[in-house]
Each structure stands twice: as C-alpha cells, then as structure tokens.
Amino acid sequence: MRLAAAPISWGVSEVPDWGHQLERRRVLDDAARLGLRDIEAGPPGFLPADARDARAILERHGVRVIGGFVTAVLQRPDSLDAELVSLERQAAWLAALGSEVLVLAAASGRADYDLPVELTAAEWRALLVALPRARGVARAQGLDIALHPHVGTAIENAASIKWLLDESDIQLCLDTGHVFVGGADPALIAREHSGRIRHVHLKDVDGTLATAVRQRRLPYSAAVARGLYRPLGDGDARIADVLAGLKASEYAGWAVLEQDVALAGPPTEANDPAHDIARSRDFARAHA
C-alpha cells in the first residue's frame, strides 16, 4: 500500500464557492515536506491544462501525479458520446502527466453534491451500458479506471454500491468517507470485496454529521465546512479496520489521504490543514 496526497485536503475543490482556495505552490510544497511526493491531480485549473507545463511545475516541487478525479454523466444516452469525448480529453491529460488511474464519479450534472440523484430504471440500465465504454476510454490512454461512490452522485448509498458490485465488473475507488456517509460499511467492503478495489481514498468521518447528510437534514457542503471529515482515527468510519482489511488482502495500490476540507479563509498556524494531513499520514503508516 502506497500513500499519496490530494489537493482537496488543502481545501482545493472544483465545487463553486467551496471555500478559500490555497495556492498551488503552498499545496505542493506542503505535500513534499510531509513526505507525500505522490498526489492526485486536483480539480481543473489547479495544474495547467498544458501537460508539459504541468509536468514542469510538478518536477520543480519534486512531486508526481498518480491519478485524478473526473466526473461524467453516464446515465443519459443522448449526451453520453459528448461525455465520453470529455472523458477522453481528461484521460489523455492525466496519462501525459504519468498517471496510473482515472477515478470516475457518475455525476448528476449539477455543480454541487448537495442533492441526491434519483435514476429511473432506464437510466440505471444506461449507466450499466456506459461503464464499460468509460473503462475503454481510460484503457486506451493506458489508465486503469476506478468508480468512486460519492455523495450526490448516482452511486452514493449502500443499495447503489451493492447494485454496482452485483451488476458490473467495474473496479472501485473505496472512498471510506463517502461510503460511510452513504450508509455502507467501508471496512466490510475492504474485507469482502478486496478484489474489486483498484484505488482507495482514506478519510474518517464525524458520525453525527454523516447521519444528518444521509437524511438530507444538512447539505453536504455545509457538513464539510463544519468538519464532516476528520483525521484518520478521530472519527467513526473504523479506519483501522479498513486498513487491516486492505493489508490482509495484500492491497498494493494507492491509499490517498483525502480529507476534504472547506476553508473559511487563509489558514493560520492553529488551523493549518497540513497538521491534520500529517496526523492522518502517521495513522495510516502505523496501521498499514
């Protein structure tokens, strides 16, 4: 198991009005200083669109990109071709940076993740047909693909994750936080479906806030701002059990320290995101 970083742990997000966005230099310098010299690519604009420029920046900081989070609306046949063209463009960019994996979320088409996605039976069938096509796009660029269960997307809760495991052979990004918020058990998935796991996002979760999001009593973005995600070991998602399950299955992929935060303003020494990232790093190393 190899540890990597993610810009969202420093509050860098693709969601409009998410919060204060730290400069790229700060994020990359912090990651290198913390010994996390492998990182996901972050949202559009975090790195230059020209892959040569992006690689030059990464090399200056001694950091490399190992993958990236990409969204696509896969359940609508009338727009699928256009979505796959966009996916191909993003996959080519990731491949040019030296990535290994494309982390795919089955998006709603909205810019946020605050509302549930309610698919019709026809849309579920369309999604099932679209997944192999998306995988083919990634493979054509030399990338593996990992489907990311995510709050506010088509694959969010325990029922939709079970549907995905039962009805498709697509590999998973086990995001411990989103799986827990959605009502599934990340430790159980790590133990019983280890063969389906291609990529891992590690985050711990405040159980009370997770319940409020799951019951739609609190918007997802508001919960993140209140501290939905906790340093590893400080929450209720049984991260030690997740890591034990991954270790038992000899998982050898990436475990990304992806503790989503939304910053109200420039961080101070007292609330520097790097402190929590370091704690999560140490917990993961101790348990994995």
Give helix and strand order, one letter per element, not per position.
Answer: EHEHEHEHEHEHHEEHHEHEH
Estimated helix fraction: 40-55%
What structural class do you assign from the helix and strand content? alpha/beta
As laid out across the biggest beta sheet, the strand order is 1-10-7-6
Q: What's the topology here?
A:
Elements: E1 2-5, H1 24-33, E2 38-40, H2 51-61, E3 64-72, H3 80-96, E4 101-106, H4 121-140, E5 144-147, H5 158-167, E6 172-175, H6 176-181, H7 186-192, E7 197-202, E8 204-205, H8 207-214, H9 220-225, E9 229-230, H10 239-248, E10 254-257, H11 273-287
Parallel strand pairs: 1-10, 2-3, 3-4, 4-5, 6-7, 7-10
Antiparallel strand pairs: 8-9
Helix pairs in contact: 3-4, 7-10
Describe the structure.
The structure is a single chain. This protein is an alpha/beta fold and 288 residues long. The protein has one domain: Divalent-metal-dependent TIM barrel enzymes (TIM Barrel, Alpha-Beta Barrel). It has eleven helices and ten strands. A four-stranded parallel sheet has the order 1-10-7-6. The longest helix is centred in the middle third of the chain and has 20 residues, at 121-140. The protein is globular, with a radius of gyration of 18 Å. The model has no long low-confidence stretch (mean pLDDT 97).
